[in-house]
Design a protein that fits this description.
The complex is a heteropentamer of chains A (about 325), B (about 270), C (about 250), D (about 325) and E (about 525). Chain B is mainly alpha-helical. Chain B is built from 9 helices and no strands. In chain B, α2 packs parallel to α5 and α2 (about 60-95) runs parallel beside α9 (about 235-265). The longest helix of chain B is centred in the C-terminal third of the chain and has 38 residues, at about 170-210. Chain B starts with 5 loop residues before the first helix and ends in a 9-residue tail after the last helix. With about 525 residues, chain E is an alpha+beta fold. Chain E contains 16 helices and 23 strands. Chain E has helices at about 10-15, 55-60, 110-125, 130, 155-160, 170-175, 230-235, 250-255, 290-295, 300-305, 340-345, 365-380, 390-400, 425-430, 440-450, 455-475, and strands spanning about 20, 30-35, 70, 75-80, 80-90, 90-95, 135-140, 145-150, 190-195, 200-205, 220-225, 245, 260-270, 270-275, 355-360, 380-390, 405-410, 475-480, 485-490, 495, 495-500, 500, 515. Chain E has an 8-stranded mixed beta sheet with strand order 9-10-11-2-12-19-13-22, covered by helices on one side. In chain E, α9 (about 290-295) packs antiparallel against α11 (about 340-345) and α10 (about 300-305) packs antiparallel against α12 (about 365-380). Classes of the chains: A alpha/beta (about 325), B mainly alpha (about 270), C alpha/beta (about 250), D mainly alpha (about 325), E alpha+beta (about 525). Chains in contact: A-B, A-C, A-D, B-C, B-D, B-E, C-D, D-E. At the A-C interface, α1, α6 and α7 of A face α4, α5, α6, α7 and α8 of C. Bound molecules: adenosine-5'-triphosphate (2 copies) and magnesium ion (2 copies). One magnesium ion binds next to α1 of chain C.
Chain lengths: ~325, ~270, ~250, ~325, ~525
């Protein structure tokens, strides 16, 4: 059963179209990685799942269903109930999402309610130091704050955890441990995860499926290893090829050429077309419809033509390491 | 930056009308505010559209004159207060340490003097009149604003963008002016409109004591003080200036809030 | 040496008044950054990297030990260092003035130096600011926006643009690329490298991403629990780490 | 340790403030136009009478000597004698303090209980379209009605028509708490209208500032109810300016109390000081102002402590910028 | 001279001539009387009646102290502690003391107390000493007679004795220092003080040893000090006070609809006057022509009608309403026109005269000042009003000599004899105005002459001369009388009130008042 289902969602800010018809499904117990270029609308999609967008955001089209309920149509109390029952969020900027006037222990205690074991939950994110409980957010390092935010989101054992770059500020070791923790807890509890991240290897390793966003749309989705190891969309391929971790010392990496689009209305054609080495005439004018390539859903006019060619362009075999 | 909301625009329009109203009195529209034109305490009627006061003067030109006096006096006073409080509050809040202590103690000293004592002293030094009233309003309103601005500045001073500016080598005036001030401007706007109300009240009180605007010049404070004593016997005496005052302060407050919201580019979030 | 930290210790106190805890965020740290060099600073979360950078920037006075910038202790008046150093601070959310447009924020270091900006005076699109924005992968049109209208990565890039715009002699990057997708990361890292080649500035590059550090850093220092446990050339470090902890770190890569 | 230092520093600076106030007020009353002699003895007084009076209250000595005597007496708890009533000022202040204190406490309580919720409501309901307008108008209305006018109106209406609440009489709290309350509610209400509005507007400003913060979004995302978020996150974070304001308003209320005390004829400190100023009753003015200063200093220390407790980034321990 | 009462009621109409109200003797005695007045006695000299110089203090002290003689309705002198008196010659007064008069401590009043009191007053620095006139000696004439000898005839003598400063004090106790009159009220009057909180309240209890059997009627008099008019009006409306003094001339309209409240206006001899400082160096006001021009330009009737709501009356320096006072309409300045004023100004070279008028802010002074300003504007004189609190005002006007104000506005208590207040036109006697007033020898001679003249046509003529001379001198220009407004609850109280008062004492007949019900 589909726990989160985003269908053709269009979100506009004052002068930007952040989502331009995004589709995404997360089923019960599934872990989905959401990757994509900075500014492609990942955070917007994540927030939209809980109807947490700022007031200037307008939903143009589409709908979001969480546990079968249309999030954007729910009355306030039902919505609140839904968030509480089904959703857990870790926001992109963890330290800012902590109340600066409350000690960490108190904040966590507030989420847990009476009788909650604060130190147990902090321990799960490897914050065993008793000092942390009594610290204020500004007294924590960036990584510690992020772990606190994760602990708070996990504390209520939500059905779906939406984590926006939850490990970005963590060092590799802690990142591993925290990720392990989150994913194993999720597996135990049957929690689904929507994991917004830039860390492609980690996504490839941990997530069942991955969705790649570009220009406000999910341009490719499918089993994680498949998508990242054998991309069907030119953007996915380009992304996967530019990880700095992949480069040997002294080698100069090349980013995807060109700049990401800033949409103000619906894209006329494929948003990636200007940067795409395979673009054709129709890519500029015709919005691509989803096609199924192998196990992947792809938004590309030429997906079928390119099958096979993209994998060879991979310059980063370590992606799946 | 967002546009002013409809309520604030309404407030702005009201203020504009009041200013026109006051300007009208400069050109003698409405009549001579000091001339005795009819019997005392007459209800509104032809010749005195807002009635006559206890000396038989027409209330209308007096209200028009009063609006001008009061708006001018209080807004100058509030501007002075805002400028001084902003400077002291921001510097004290940002710098901390001894400077902070010094400013806060000074403010405390000012606070300890009841407004009336301050007013009498100021009037003693400057001689009674508008200038004394102005100085008194400033002295009465400065402490609160300074404290609040300081509190806001302390919070802002710890933000990373201030740190970034400092790293860039920005001079103090720049850090304070470009980073701290805009982020405490909301507080100043809100407290400024509040100070304006206090100012008008203080002005009225001072005139009542005899230290403010000197008779026969009219100010809203004076008119309302007088109207207050005749509230039941001659309600039109308070009605005219009262309505104008309420409209003025309401408008100022609403505009102040609007301004505050406008100064905040971020969107507030609804709690649902 | 543009920056020298000599036996620096920083102690914080925290906790409730009566149960005060003292914490050494830095313990006897000695570090040097040479002209034109990028020093990578890695280490576990909470190990004191940010604190080190604050000390290096003169924002945090060491409890003990000395800091020298340009061979001299920090001057009383920061103004003397104007244009010499810049930083990309760790929290993009707080590092931009919410009431300043992106263009104004990026233009500020130029303003401070009194360098008139070519293009429009309000720092909108055009001139050095627009160019800088484009270099970090943002359209010049972003100059018009307020920080809250940006995505996390966009905000971080604005901070980077602001730090680079004056080509200062020394820059701290504290988790400067952590919120960026790999492609943009590469773009930024390339930019840093290119500018460094052109202007020869020094940098303290703090990151958890050992890949990124390897990509830009000349030398690497490893911190753990407030102490520097290893300093080595990048090549040496990645091939023959000497400290046990360094080995652990690299294993995870 | 630092706390101890803070306290001792604060005590020192408070003492310095009080000393400053004492010097200023002492000089000030003597600078006020219209000397005590003309005022107290009237126009017919002869030079001899004036001299007698001056000698009686030691006013013939050099000013700094007078100050010295006064200061020594004050530190010994002796605030001098009123030149009008010839009664000790200290005793009279103590007798009158309860009235003013009760008025002020009631008004501050009203500001907290009504102003804060109103401010929160108008902020939470504020929409770009201009919602919450009613609340904004309401709080604007409060600041625009002068106490004098409102007080007179209330006094008039409640005295002419039997509406259940007493005006113009005063019953000590200790004698008849219920009766005291029925006589104090109206003056306190009149007094608090202004501060309720100001509190509401300051609260609105502060809450709006908090509503943009991500931790509020985070709390919403956790499915917390608005009330819960307000209670646990917003109030605390918005508290600093409101608490500062409330402390400061106490000062304003003391000034407002004097008008209300006048209109309602309550024997409080405010009217005592005002009458003394009117008659240049030096000892009373000096003692009154010193008392006010003492109150404000204590209030400010409390506020600083409270603010420090509410917001760890501020207050006692945060100290200065590094 | 009768007071005007708004909305006369049955009680009012039946009042005897000279009275605004007469207490209904059919009502039972006893009960508590709650009064409110706007100001407390605030003398630095304490309760000592001899040093009291303001009417508000006289009013309160008169509940406990009594004088040899008193003022009746229409200002007639009537016996009080003296049963009667003889005047063998214009310079000699023999008072026959009432028997059985006791001080509140139970001790019988003796001739020694009377002699001692008067001597003490004459030796004191009080203002009232001057009003007693040229007293040569005070002697005991047997146990129950006291003889006062004047060095020359002095007509207002008895009237002067009728005011509180001439009260009979317990001299035995004062002399043996067991009583300090500054801090203790011990008199022969109807009430004794039980409690006084400065500026808050007084409580008077019936003096059980009072000589006048059956009086006072009320057992208790509670006086609340309520400076704010609104508070007094409120107390009247809700029954908190049975009687209150009101300051605003329009207060009667405020109380118009209030049930059972009656507002009456008591005429007084108090009057407003304008001071023109002729001693300020370089001031145009030093020129009598300029001052006369001002006197001419002033429209007293308008001041009375507008500033005092028609409740005051134009007056010359002998207060209007007193028997024998001169007619203000007959004053030289009253017969002149604005053109005359302008001509005088032109003559003095003061066409564009402009000066500052210093006033205190207590109503209705600002109103009077603004009408004055309007009046003088007609004659081309610009008046700038400078308003301040009373203390600052007194500092400015009386603080130094020569005073540095241009013009000032104030009011006098007019007392009960037309000649008494004329004394203040001699700065050397008055003292308070030496700083701004040049003594006028001719005027002083006229004043003294009028003082000696026994009551009758000759005295009236002498007073008319004084009035005319003072009018021409115009250093202090009398304007209008200042009425007193009193309101009381007809359901709570049946008071006695004179229609006109010379010593500003609204509480004069309190002992007669009957309480209808006690709140
Ligand atoms: N203002 C402060 N008060 C008290 N403790 C602090 C303060 N700032 C930092 N600390 C503590 O100092 C230690 C080092 O913090 P620092 O921010 O330097 O770590 P970091 O290496 O940058 O970590 P991260 O990679 O997670 O950002 C942490 O344990 C932190 O809790
Ligand atoms: N509050 C806002 N107002 C206006 N525009 C916004 C707002 N928030 C985001 N945007 C714009 O919407 C687009 C999508 O933003 P979003 O935050 O969803 O990106 P993202 O994929 O999360 O990027 P990143 O990886 O950098 O966090 C961006 O172009 C951004 O500039
Ligand atoms: Mg994002
Ligand atoms: Mg850090």
């Amino acid at each position: 059963m589909s726990l989160l289902s985003v269908r053709n969602l269009v979100i506009d800010y004052a002068r930007t179209r952040a989502l331009d018809g995004a589709d995404l499904e997360v089923t019960q117990g599934e872990t989905v990685g959401l990757v994509g270029e900075s500014g492609s609308g990942k955070s917007t999609l994540g927030s939209a799942a809980g109807r947490l967008l700022p007031q200037s955001a307008r939903r143009g089209e589409g709908e979001v269903l969480v546990a079968g309920e249309p999030v954007f149509e729910l009355p306030a109390t039902r919505l609140r109930h839904l968030r509480r029952r089904h959703l857990g969020f870790v926001f992109q900027d963890p330290i800012a999402s902590l109340d600066p006037t409350m000690r960490v222990g108190a904040q966590l205690g507030l989420v847990l309610g009476r009788g909650g074991d604060v130190s147990f939950h902090l321990g799960r994110v490897r914050l065993d130091d008793p000092r942390v409980v009594r610290s204020y957010p500004h007294q924590l390092s960036g990584g510690m704050a992020q772990r606190v935010a994760i602990a708070m989101a996990m504390a209520t054992a939500p059905d779906l955890l939406i984590a926006d770059e939850p490990t970005a500020a963590l060092d590799s070791q802690v990142r591993e441990e925290v990720s392990n923790m989150v994913f194993s807890l999720a597996a135990e509890a049957g929690t689904s995860i929507l994991w917004l991240s830039h860390d492609l290897p980690a996504v490839a390793r941990r997530c069942d499926r991955v969705a790649v966003m570009y220009g406000g749309r999910v341009v490719e989705s499918g089993p994680a290893r498949q998508v990242l190891g054998n991309p069907a969309h030119p953007y996915t391929a380009a992304l996967a090829g530019s990880a700095p971790a992949a480069a040997a010392h002294g080698v100069r990496l090349e980013p995807v050429p060109g700049r990401p689009p800033v949409l103000t209305g619906p894209a006329e054609g494929c948003a990636f077309a200007p940067r795409c080495p395979f673009a054709e005439e129709r890519c500029e004018h015709e919005r691509p419809a989803p096609v199924r390539i192998r196990e992947q859903d792809v938004l590309c006019h030429r997906a079928a033509d390119l099958e096979g060619t993209l994998a060879q362009r991979r310059s980063a075999p370590e992606v799946s390491a | 930056m967002r546009k002013l909301d409809r309520l604030s625009i309404g407030g702005l329009a009201c203020l504009l009308i009041l200013v026109l109203f006051a300007l009208g009195s400069l050109f003698g529209i409405g009549g001579d505010p000091d001339a005795i034109v009819g019997p005392r305490l007459q209800p509104p009627g032809p010749g005195w559209w807002l009635g006559t006061d206890n000396l038989g003067r027409s209330v209308l030109p007096r209200v028009m004159e009063g609006v001008g006096t009061t708006l001018l006096l209080s807004s100058i006073a509030v501007l002075v207060t805002a400028a001084l409080s902003a400077t002291f509050g921001i510097v004290a809040g940002y710098r901390g340490g001894y400077l902070n202590e010094l400013v806060m103690r000074l403010v405390e000293v000012l606070y300890s003097f009841p407004a009336i004592v301050l007013a009498i002293l100021v009037a003693a030094v400057l001689g009674p009149g508008q200038f004394a009233a102005l100085a008194s309003i400033v002295l009465v309103t400065i402490p609160l604003m300074t404290r609040l601005v300081r509190a806001a500045a302390v919070a802002v001073a710890q933000r990373d963008y201030v740190t970034s500016a400092v790293i860039s080598g920005a001079r103090l005036p720049r850090v304070l002016g470009r980073h701290v001030l805009p982020n405490v401007a909301g507080t100043i706007a809100v407290q400024g409109t509040y100070a304006l109300s206090v100012g008008i009240a203080v002005e009225g009180g001072l005139s009542f004591l005899g230290f403010g605007v000197q008779p026969p010049q009219a100010s809203l404070g004076v008119l309302i003080q007088q109207g207050g004593t005749y509230m039941i016997a001659a309600p039109w005496l308070i009605l005219g200036p009262g309505v104008v005052l309420v409209v003025a302060i309401l408008a100022i407050n609403v505009v102040g809030d609007g301004l505050r919201d406008r100064l905040e580019p971020r969107e507030t979030r609804s709690l649902t | 040496m543009i920056l020298e930290l000599d036996d620096v210790t920083v102690t914080f106190t925290a906790g409730a008044p009566l149960r005060r805890v003292h914490l050494d965020a830095m313990k006897h740290v000695s570090l040097e950054v040479a002209e034109g060099e990028t020093l990578g600073l890695v280490g576990e979360s909470g190990s004191g990297k940010t604190t080190t950078s604050r000390v290096a920037l003169g924002l945090q006075r060491p409890t003990t030990g000395t800091v020298r910038f340009d061979g001299r202790p920090f001057p009383k008046r920061r103004r003397e260092l104007a244009g010499r150093m810049q930083a990309v601070l760790q929290h993009p959310h707080w590092s931009l003035n919410p009431r300043m447009r992106v263009g104004q924020s990026v233009a500020e270091p130029l303003d401070v130096l009194g360098r008139p900006m070519d293009g429009r005076a309000d720092g909108r699109a055009g001139g050095a600011v627009g160019e800088m924005l484009e270099q970090v992968g943002l359209e010049a049109g972003f100059a018009d926006r307020y920080p809250h209208e940006l995505s996390g990565g966009q905000r971080q890039r604005v901070s980077i643009a602001r730090a680079l715009v004056t080509r200062p002699a020394f820059i701290v990057f504290d988790e400067a690329v952590s919120a960026l997708d790999v492609s943009v990361q590469v773009q930024i890292l390339n930019l840093i490298k290119d500018l460094q080649a052109e202007y020869g500035f020094s940098a303290l590059f703090i990151s958890h991403d050992l890949g990124a550090v390897r990509y830009v850093a000349d030398r690497i220092a490893v911190m753990r629990k407030g102490e520097i446990v290893e300093t080595a050339d990048t090549a040496t470090f990645y091939t023959h780490p000497s400290h046990e902890y360094s080995k652990q770190l690299l294993e995870a890569l | 340790m630092r706390l101890l230092m803070w306290w001792s520093g604060r005590a020192l600076s408070s003492a310095a403030t009080l000393l400053g106030v004492s010097v200023l007020i002492f000089a000030a009353v003597r600078l006020m136009p219209g000397g005590f002699a003309e005022t107290v003895l009237g126009p017919f007084a002869t030079a001899g009478q004036k001299a007698d009076l001056a000698a009686r209250y030691g006013l013939d000595q050099p000013v700094f000597m007078q100050y010295g005597h006064w200061l020594t007496a004050v530190t010994g708890g002796d605030f001098g004698v009123s030149m009008i009533s010839r009664q000790p000022v200290g005793a009279e202040l103590v007798a009158r303090l309860p009235v003013t204190a009760e008025l002020t406490v009631l008004a501050v309580a009203a500001s907290v209980l009504l102003g804060v919720p109103l401010g929160v409501l108008t902020a939470v309901r504020a929409r770009p379209g201009g919602g919450g307008a009613a609340g904004r108008l309401l709080s604007g209305l409060g600041v625009s009605v002068p106490e004098f006018v409102l007080g007179s109106l209330v006094v008039f209406v409640f005295s002419r028509y039997a509406l259940g609440l007493e005006v113009g009489s005063w019953v000590p709290l200790t004698r008849d708490p219920a009766g005291n309350l029925t006589t104090m509610i109206l003056p306190a209400a009149v007094l608090s209208v202004f501060s309720i509005s100001v509190t509401a507007r300051t609260t609105r400003d502060a809450v709006m500032g908090v509503l943009v913060e991500p931790y509020v979004t985070a709390a919403v995302g956790r499915g917390e109810s608005p009330w819960f978020i307000v209670r646990h996150h917003i109030l605390r974070n918005a508290a600093t300016p409101v608490v500062t304001l409330l402390g400061a308003t106490t000062a304003y209320l003391l000034g407002g109390a004097l008008i209300v005390e006048h209109v309602f004829n309550l024997p409080g400190v405010g009217s005592y000081i005002v009458q003394a100023v009117g008659r240049r009753d030096y000892a009373v003015v000096q003692a009154g102002v010193l008392l006010a200063a003492g109150v404000f200093i204590v209030m400010n220390v409390l506020i600083d402590l409270l603010v420090g407790a509410l917001d760890p980034r501020m207050g006692v321990m945060a100290g200065r910028r590094s | 001279a009768t007071g005007t009462a708004t909305s006369p009621t049955a009680a009012q109409e039946s009042a005897a001539p000279g009275y605004l109200a007469v207490a209904d003797q059919a009502l039972p005695t006893g009960g508590a009387l709650n009064l409110q007045v706007h100001i407390d006695s605030g003398a630095a000299t304490g309760y000592d009646p001899q040093l009291a110089d303001v009417a508000t203090t006289w009013q309160l002290l008169s509940l406990s102290y009594e004088t040899l003689v008193t003022v009746g309705p229409d200002f007639s002198v009537q016996p009080l502690l003296a049963e009667k008196w003889d005047t063998p010659d214009p310079k000699t007064y023999v008072f026959h003391l009432r028997k059985g008069v006791k001080f509140a401590n139970g001790r019988e009043m003796t001739a020694d107390d009377v002699v001692g009191s008067l001597k003490r007053l004459l030796a004191s620095k009080g203002v009232w000493r001057g009003q007693l006139g040229p007293v040569k000696s005070v002697t005991k004439d047997g146990d129950d007679q006291v003889k006062v000898t004047l060095s020359e005839p002095y007509t207002p003598f008895l009237t002067a004795l009728a005011n509180v400063p001439a009260a009979i004090l317990p001299m035995k106790e004062i002399d043996d220092k067991s009583v300090d009159p500054a801090t203790t009220l011990l008199g022969t009057g109807p009430y004794v003080v039980q409690d006084h909180r400065q500026d808050v309240s007084w409580t008077f209890k019936r003096n059980d040893k009072y000589w006048n059997q059956g009086k006072p009627n009320a057992d208790t008099v509670n006086i609340t000090i309520a400076p704010e008019e609104a508070a007094r009006i409120a107390a009247l409306q809700n029954g908190g006070a049975a009687l209150a003094t009101l300051g605003n001339v329009d207060s009667s309209t405020m109380l118009a609809g209030a049930k059972d409240v009656q507002v009456v206006t008591q005429a007084t001899t108090d009057f407003y006057y304008l001071m023109l400082n002729s001693l300020k160096p370089g001031s145009k006001l030093a020129d009598p022509k300029v001052r006369q021009a001002i006197a001419i330009a002033l429209d007293d009737q308008q001041i009375a009608d507008v500033a005092l709501g028609g409740k005051g009356k134009p007056t010359a320096i002998t207060p209007a309403g007193l028997p024998g006072a001169c007619d203000p309409a007959a004053l030289p300045s009253a017969g002149k026109s604005l053109d005359d004023a302008k001509a005088l100004l032109a003559e003095a070279g003061a066409q564009n005269l402009s000066f500052t008028l210093s006033i205190f802010s207590t109503e209705p002074a600002p109103a009077v000042a603004q009408v004055v300003q309007q009046n003088l504007q007609q004659a081309g004189i610009t008046v700038k009003i400078e308003q301040m609190d009373e203390a600052s005002w007194s500092g400015k006007v009386y603080g130094k000599a020569p005073a540095d104000f241009d013009a000032a506005l104030s009011w006098f208590a007019g007392y009960a004899d037309p000649g008494m207040v004329t004394k203040w036109w001699n700065p050397e006697t008055a003292g308070f105005n030496v700083g701004f007033m040049k003594p006028d020898k001719d005027l002083n001679t006229l004043i003294d002459a009028a003082g000696k003249e026994p009551a009758g046509a000759a005295r009236d003529k002498a007073l008319t001369d004084v009035c005319a001379k003072a009018d021409a001198d115009a250093q202090m220009i009398p304007l209008v009388t200042r009425p007193a407004t009193v309101a009381f609850r007809t359901d709570a109280l049946s008071p006695s009130l004179y229609a006109a008062e010379g010593y500003g004492n609204v509480l004069r007949l309190v002992a007669d008042a009957r309480v209808k019900k006690t709140q």
